Amino acid sequence: MVGFSDNYTHVQVGADKKHELDGLDLFTGVTMTYTDSNAGSDTFSGKTKSVGAGLYASALFDSGAYIDLIGKYVHHDNEYTATFAGLGTKDYGSHSWYAGAEVGYRYHVTEDAWIEPQAELVYGAVSGKQFSWKDQGMNLTMKDKDFNPLIGRTGVDVGKSFSGKDWKVTARAGLGYQFDLLANGETVLRDASGEKRIKGEKDGRMLMSVGLNAEVRDNIRFGLEFEKSAFGKYNVDNAVNAGFRYSF
């Protein structure tokens, strides 16, 4: 998106339990998240601090198929500054919730190399906001309506593992496409002369990622992943994900 930038730091912690069932391993757990983001363009800037909590379940079948489910609620504290029409700085709270499902199948080309097609669908609800103020004696309002994002993703990962006596390292690369199935909300600007509606548009982008995952003994796992996207109106220039997991 021309003239728009968004930088964020996201931290997630969680705990889950493994259930060994006939033909599959089931993991059920809880997660907590914190996000600190800064966004801006030629006409506005904003800061958001978000705290969320959710439940998830992952089923890993002996056949190589898997299903991931997650539900999450997030509360946002926002500070919004606009340079047009004397809006100034506004503080407000908002919230959102999401439910997502991902399915995939890991097919082993050799014992150590695999290819994994995936598909994901995420549905949510995002609360809107409304500001009212005066500029040179004129009453103005700006309202962002509530909206329900519906986002799909399809893609494929490939990977290869290298192992020793008590360690294993897996290198992987992924290519996918993410797309909006519903338009992203609507903004209504109103003054003495009438109102103007700015409707959100659907977007889509190609996703690219590379990563390394390491396993030490049977209970320590950590990984590093680099992601970016292209060919969309809104793209992720660079994202770095680091993870650590300890089992007991």
UniProtKB/TrEMBL annotation:
Keywords of the record: Hydrolase
The EC number(s) this enzyme carries: 3.4.21.-
Presence of the UniProt keyword Hydrolase in the record: yes
Record flagged with keyword Hydrolase: yes
InterPro entries: Autotransporte_beta, Autotransporte_beta_dom_sf, Autotransporter_adhesion, OM_autotransptr_brl_dom
GO CC field: outer membrane
Catalytic EC class: hydrolase
Autotransporter domain mapped to chain residues: 1-248
SUPFAM superfamilies, alphabetized: Autotransporter
Gene Ontology MF: a single term: hydrolase activity
UniProt-listed SMART domains: Autotransporter
Gene3D superfamilies in UniProt: Autotransporter beta-domain (2.40.128.130)
PANTHER family named in the record: C-TERMINAL REGION OF AIDA-LIKE PROTEIN
Protein's name in the database: Outer membrane autotransporter barrel domain protein
Provenance organism: Escherichia coli
Gene: pet_2
